Amino acid sequence: MDEVEVVVAHSERATLRVGEMYLKVDADRARVDVEVEAMTLAPVPTPEVLWREPPVLALAALPGATLGRLGGPSTGSSAAWAAVGAAIRQLHEAPLPSWTGRAGRSVVRLAEELDRECQLLVANGLLPVELVARNRQVAEAALREWTPVFTHGDLQIAHVFLDGDEVTGIIDWSEAGQGDALYDLATFSLGHEEQLGHLVAGYGGDVDLEVVRAWWALRSLLAVRWLSEHGFDPFAPGCEVDVLKSRM
Questions:
Q1: Residue 129 included in any domain
Q2: What CATH number should be reported for the domain holding residue 228?
Q3: Torsion over CA of 34, 159, 85 and 76, rounded to 10 degrees?
């Protein structure tokens, strides 16, 4: 029997790998519905759905490897990073899905969420007030009107697989929907600022880098407390707290 590998597990969901199959366990059926629908609609490579028996979704493993992980060194050539940028552009130019995703929260709601989280970070002693205040200022540039596109919504570097310089698949679509294009670019390049130019070159068009950096600050501020409470370490080298410190 194949060994069972726990890929990620917390109170909301878990992902296991058994041989060449991934088993995603999620009690939120609506979130799984979004994932399956988004993979059906997305014009980029996605994992094959092997079977579905709520609360479990079985997906085939993808060939290739990722370009790294948050907190670790980035790998791959500049061409590989550009290839990811081109794939993201292809997704963003696809017809819009009917629902709003994580990257599509309203400016008002997002600002309220951000202000509340900043207050909690300071009140709970997780981060110094100066670090929070500076990054709250940087994050302001992301709070603007944007044209909705088809976004992945959680496009972490570990969610895109490549074989050489070719994208072989993108995983974890549960946060997909209409949203801000620059949120996806910022999420993928988080912690790997040195590769942003290659990513944007592949993406093409006029990308506002100030907004991308604002999303780095905003996303990190919103993530630190949740990660700390769910068994992850945002204080590890190269992770969210270091991203926030880089904005000082």
A1: yes
A2: 3.90.1200.10
A3: -170
Residue 167, CA distances (Å) to 62, 83, 229 in order: 10, 7, 33
Task: Give 33's contacts (C-beta < 8 A, 6+ positions apart).
Answer: none
Give the total number of structural domains in the chain: 1
Query: pTM score, two decimals?
Result: 0.95
**To the nearest whole percent, how much of the chain has pLDDT over 90?**
90
What is the residue range of 155's domain?
63-245
Q: Quote the longest CA-to-CA distance of the chain.
A: 53
pLDDT digit string (tens) for 202-221? Answer: 999 999 999 999 999 999 99
Alpha helices, DSSP H only, in the chain? 29-41, 78-92, 107-123, 129-139, 181-189, 196-203, 209-229, 240-245
Does residue 37 fall inside a structural domain? no
